[in-house]
Amino acid sequence: MREKACTICKETFTYKNKSKQYCSNACKQQALRNREKVKLIRAVVSRPAAGSLETTELINRIFNTYIKQVEAMCKEMSIHYSTVIFMKDMIQSLKVAAPIDSKLKTQLEQMKGVMTTLYKYSQNNQCEYGYCSFDQRTANNALNTLKHIKRLRNKQSRERPED
Ligand SMILES: [Zn+2]
């Protein structure tokens, strides 16, 4: 019988088998838990683009509000040209920040298409103060695409809990 220090509690213990590292089952369990903890920390730290989950969540929230805003724009009387430009730039930024090849990115791409159409319309149909109101056809086209995007997003949020 020989003696050595337990890897966990540092108490000296006697051993027959040289590969034995722990004085007791309790210390063996503790070592296992320590290894699990290290694994967990590694998984969190090495996750690609740390914070990307929060970014996606943030984009989703902004996007939901954005959809409501564009719906209102299509239903209300008039909107300033500069607001349309802002909305068009904003959707582009959200699209760039969205995860590559995601459903979210595809939806943002569709939304960008809507904004490009509205932008072009407002470019050519504004009053001397820079305001414009969308005609029935333009507004309906935009609202139909919005409906489609919302359907996709509702479907997705219903599927999410089973992921
Ligand atoms: Zn021990």
Estimated share of beta-strand residues? 5-15%
Q: Could you give a short account of the major beta sheet?
A: 2 strands, antiparallel
Described by the principal axes of the CA atoms, the overall outline is rod-shaped
Range of helix content? 55-70%
Category by helix and strand content: mainly alpha
Q: What's this model, at a glance?
A:
This protein has 163 residues and is mainly α.
Question: How do the helices and strands line up, and which of them pair or pack?
Answer:
Blueprint: E1 2-5, E2 12-15, H1 25-45, H2 52-75, E3 79-80, H3 81-97, H4 103-124, E4 131-132, H5 136-159
Antiparallel strand pairs: 1-2, 3-4
Bound molecules: zinc ion.
Zinc ion binds next to loops.
What does this structure look like?
This protein is mainly alpha-helical and 163 residues long. The protein has two domains: 2-45, no CATH class; 52-162. It has five helices and four strands. The strands form two sheets. A two-stranded antiparallel sheet has the order 1-2. The chain has a two-stranded antiparallel sheet with strand order 3-4. A hairpin with a 6-residue loop joins strand 1 and strand 2. Zinc ion binds at residues 6, 8-9, 11, 22-24, 27.
